[in-house]
């Protein structure tokens, strides 16, 4: 899956902005714990991340 499509899909599923999703996936510190958990859980469900 294309990176932009992954970010857009996760953003749509979590209700977060694509920018927030991108920051979480890049490991940036300036995101809330709630947003980080939502993005990482969704990414695992989509098979984007292991774990």
Automatic annotation (TrEMBL):
InterPro entries: HTH_LacI (IPR000843), Lambda_DNA-bd_dom_sf (IPR010982). Keywords: Oxidoreductase, Peroxidase. PROSITE patterns: HTH_LACI_2 (PS50932). Residues 5-51 form the HTH lacI-type domain. It comes from the Bacteria. One of its GO terms (biological process) is regulation of DNA-templated transcription. This is Cytochrome-c peroxidase. It holds the Pfam family LacI. GO terms for molecular function: DNA binding; peroxidase activity. The lineage of its organism: Bacteria, Pseudomonadati, Pseudomonadota, Gammaproteobacteria, Enterobacterales.
